[in-house]
Amino acid sequence: MEGNGVQRDLGRHDAQIAALAEDVAEIKRGMGELGAKLDAVVSTLSVAKGGWKTILIVGGAASVVVEGINLVASAFGFHR
Known about the structure:
The protein has one helix and no strands. With 80 residues, the protein is mostly helical.
């Protein structure tokens, strides 16, 4: 009888190990998908960071141009 109990326990443990191995494989697949999504987010943020710099440069340049026009206008008396 003791042999049957050991065999039964071994069978149960084999099934548990197989289930755990399947769970680990699923977790690894999920981590791979998560890594790919994270790479996409980092790429998007890198592009956005460059866009913000461009907007700041264009805005700064526009304010310099407008201030130059104001300076010229006030020099010729067109400014209020």
